[in-house]
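Hey team,

Filing this mostly as a record. A colleague (T.K.) asked me to run one chain through the structure pipeline before their review meeting, and I want the input and output archived in the tracker in case anyone asks later how it was produced. No errors, nothing strange. Just documentation.

Input sequence:
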Amino acid sequence: MSQYRTHVTREFERWDNISWLYYRDVGKMGLLIEANPHAPIIPCLPAGLVLRIPLIRVENTTQDLPPWK
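Output structure:
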């Protein structure tokens, strides 16, 4: 069984912004959309929408960063 946290949208938030906020990967938008069938798939989400954010393991890697990072 998956675990979730909740997120209440603010004005002008988008799926990609939320994906970046929680996963640091806009490619995970599909995971968010799938977990929230009640939410519209539109460019900007309405404020006050409660979304389920699936908890996943996010790998932190520094191999692609320049040496000073």
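Quick notes for T.K.: The two ends are 37 Å apart (CA to CA). The chain is about 25% helix and 15% strand.
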